[in-house]
Write a structure and sequence with these properties.
single chain, three-stranded antiparallel β-sheet, two-stranded parallel ribbon, 5 strands, alpha+beta
């Protein structure tokens, strides 16, 4: 017998946007580093990089309580690192949010905003030498590791 409500959809995540650059003298960078300094929050972030999940799926995967998983999801949402990308329904008909990493890539520069022109020049040089797609792939892989 078919289910009345979908238990899960498969949202398509577009990560093709240009990266935002964060510098160490920026308040958003401070919040981001503070958020990711907690091991469980970092594990949550890494797991959501693999695939979108609900709080209960994340709790099962990371051996957490739903309350603890929700706490870390809230921290990541407050830091604009994840977002709700879909809604699905449990077997009991309860609405559940599906979370994923935001589609905006971030580049953290260990310098200040005054270094911006040099950073852009460095990225342009790298892109010219190996091609823009290779730079994007390398940046993405280094963030995901």
């Amino acid at each position: 017998m078919p289910k009345l409500l979908p238990s899960r959809t498969d949202p398509e995540i577009d990560r093709s946007g240009d990266p935002s650059v964060l510098y160490v003298d920026n308040d958003q960078t401070k919040e981001l580093l503070s958020t990711l300094s907690a091991e469980t929050t970092m594990d949550t972030f890494r797991r959501l990089h693999e695939e979108p999940l609900t709080a209960s799926e994340l709790a099962d995967d990371l051996d957490l309580s739903i309350q603890n998983a929700s706490y870390h999801l809230d921290k990541l949402q407050d830091a604009d690192l994840i977002e709700v990308v879909d809604t699905c329904y449990s077997e009991k008909g309860r609405e559940m949010n599906v979370y994923a990493v935001t589609n905006e890539p971030l580049v953290l520069v260990l310098g200040t905003e005054t270094d911006g022109p040099r950073v852009r020049q460095a990225f342009a040089s790298i892109a010219g030498a190996v091609g823009a797609p290779a730079v994007a792939i390398a940046a993405w892989e280094s963030v995901a590791d």
